[in-house]
From TrEMBL:
SMART domains to which the protein is assigned, alphabetical: MR_MLE
Gene3D superfamilies assigned: Enolase-like C-terminal domain, Enolase-like, N-terminal domain
Organism: Edaphobacillus lindanitolerans
Residue positions binding Mg(2+): 189, 214, 239
Enzyme class: lyase
Name by which UniProt lists this protein: o-succinylbenzoate synthase
HAMAP family membership: MenC_2
């Protein structure tokens, strides 16, 4: 593949409802859709899975756009790229900035797959025809309100319920959900809201039979997580702490987690995601696909990746209607009976709809050199 042009579509999208985590509330965000165009005219799509604030990690939509324009696009334009698996290595001259890297790397996977008449799933060896959908629920004002939400999502068919927690909104909330729904697949995500001093407090979760607790401790830690895992029965899952294959290898070696949440953006693309997936599979570590409140483009990539065999736990990829009044892709991402059917089409399998895009567009740039 040889890129003749990269189009940056700057959009602004509003979630149907505010989403609150231990680090803040998200509602409205600027996102950049990256469209790469091959010399034969085939285009592929990726998304910066950032928001406007650097609270989840250090990147924002603006920093991602800056890195793309000043470093990554110039490095990739007009170069013969034999296979998209090479792109991550071509961008390693810059440290981190993984969400920016993933935005263009995934777009190249899409273009390459389309050029070859294959889906991305087929290209990476994914075989599932449908994937299980889970629902990530933000922090609610009370356990009662949370239980009502869970009830609604369980009725809709979601295969896993994830609840955001923080000090002051944790044990009591999770217990209320477990008492109301003794049998559902249930987990908590703390987004780094605790320290090892809270180990005894978090141990109270053990009796609730949770699938896991996600990222309880510091965003950059794998040592204390290993210590915590020795003190609690609930499996620890890492999200924020894993940026690469090397991070995953070290975390597994230390016993810092029993499960890893793979996010394509956080680890710098689909190739690195696949390497982490394979490593976890060899080591008996289950993985699942996390979410970043993406538009249809980012979630289409998540669906393609989740077709790999070691994605054994339902991910955070919910249908379009759970995020937006109208998504930018057609058809919208739909769930039936808790399952999302993997589309048959080439590449990401969904089309960006120009009319829908026009409604959310802020500006567009075309970069050819
Ligand atoms: O920690 O998994 C997280 C959203 C934004 C940033 C971080 C996280 C999340 C989610 C939402 O949990 C998952 C989704 O896309 O529905
Ligand atoms: Mg998380």
């Amino acid at each position: 593949i040889n890129l003749k042009e990269v189009r940056l579509h700057h959009i602004n999208v509003s979630l149907i409802a505010p989403f609150t985590t231990s680090f803040g509330t998200m509602e409205n965000k600027d996102v950049c859709l990256v469209e790469v165009v091959d010399e034969s005219g085939v285009s592929g799509w990726g998304e910066t899975v950032t928001s406007n604030e650097p609270y989840y990690n250090e990147e924002t939509t603006e920093t991602a756009v800056y890195m793309l324009k000043d470093f990554f696009i110039p490095r990739l334009l007009h170069r013969e790229i034999g296979h998209p698996s090479e792109v991550h290595g071509m961008l390693e001259f810059v440290r981190r900035n993984n969400i920016a890297k993933a935005a263009i790397e995934t777009a190249i996977w899409d273009a390459f797959a389309k050029k070859n008449g294959l889906s991305i799933a087929e290209l990476i060896g994914g075989t599932k025809k449908e994937i299980e959908s889970g629902k990530s629920i933000g922090i609610q004002e009370s356990p009662e309100v949370l239980v009502k939400k869970v009830d609604q999502y369980v009725r809709e068919g979601f295969r896993k319920i994830k609840v955001k927690i923080k000090p002051g909104a944790d044990i009591e909330y999770m217990r209320a959900v477990r008492e109301a729904f003794p049998d559902i697949a249930l987990m908590a995500d703390a987004n780094s809201a605790y320290t090892l001093d809270d180990a005894d407090h978090l141990k109270q979760l053990d009796e609730l039979d949770l699938l896991m607790i996600e990222q309880p401790l510091a965003h950059d830690d794998i040592i204390d997580h290993a210590k915590l895992q020795k003190q609690i029965k609930t499996p620890v899952c890492l999200d924020e702490s894993i940026h690469s294959y090397e991070d995953a290898r070290k975390a597994i070696e230390l016993g810092s987690c029993r499960i890893i949440n793979i996010k394509i953006g956080r680890v710098g693309g689909l190739q690195e995601s696949k390497r982490i997936h394979d490593l976890c599979m060899e080591n008996g570590i289950d993985v699942w696909c996390g979410g970043m409140l993406e538009t249809g483009v980012g979630r289409a990539h998540n669906i393609q990746m989740t077709t790999l065999p070691n994605f054994t736990i339902p991910g955070d990829t919910a249908p379009s209607s759970h995020y937006w009044t109208e998504d930018i892709v057609t058809p919208e991402i739909e769930m039936h009976n808790g399952l999302i059917r993997v589309p048959d089409g080439a590449g990401i399998g969904y089309e960006v709809d120009p009319q829908k895009l026009a409604k959310v567009i802020r500006s567009e740039e075309r970069i050819t050199s």
